[in-house]
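Input.
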Amino acid sequence: MAGTDSRRSDSAEVAGGDIAPAIILVDPQLAENIGTTARAMLNCGLTDLRLVRPRQDWPHEKAVAAASGADSVLEGAKVFDSTVEAIADLRYVLAATARGRDMNKSVLTPRAAGKKTRAFSCNGEPSGVLFGRERSGLVNDDVALADAVLTVPLNPAYRSLNIAQAVLLFAYEWFQTGSNLKGERLVRHGAKPATKEELLGFFTHLEEELDVGGFLRPPEKRPAMMRNIRNMFQRAELMDHEVRTLRGIISALTTSRDAGNKGRRAKKRKT
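Output.
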């Protein structure tokens, strides 16, 4: 799924202007995984990529190819000889791991981790997340350096994420804590919501024609039937042009009905 806006900044300011968490890859084996991680990061406004002892020479052309345009993250990536050096300037560190460790540490989901690191970001304090080797993850000594553990709750029968997927799950949750977008929004394309006057006019028109057609029977159920019909259309959050379309449909149907009735009456008179 592609959709890059070249007018937007590459920096973490797209997520609110706070200090974005660092992503630290410990002993990454494949350059392609570093590239896909950079792509996942930049989608969510993260740009601070740190590499601890990458196996392949750095920088690497395969990482650039896999990054799909997230070159700024790769160009700014820093290489360290140890995990201790990579996290030295950070105030708060999470260790991403799927395995239980014999350590007394808080365990956070990506959503909780996103909120926690956002709080540090808002206070101007740097944070970061450690991600381990592709095959074996982080060693216990690396986990021991962290303040808390990040674990993704997944299907117990199969929990297998590549590094970029794991990074994206955390990065997305962090980004959402600083996003102004609502969970659901209506894209109107210039249309205006129908006013109450327009809706009430439509309801009156519909009610009149339903009466003529004999739909609102028996009489004692008529009020409840109309309330249900009104509620149904009000839940739809109709646009003004949609109300006009519905009234046009009613008019077309009733015109056809009236023409048919006239034809039948004329036929009866002839016979």
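The chain is about 45% helix and 10% strand.
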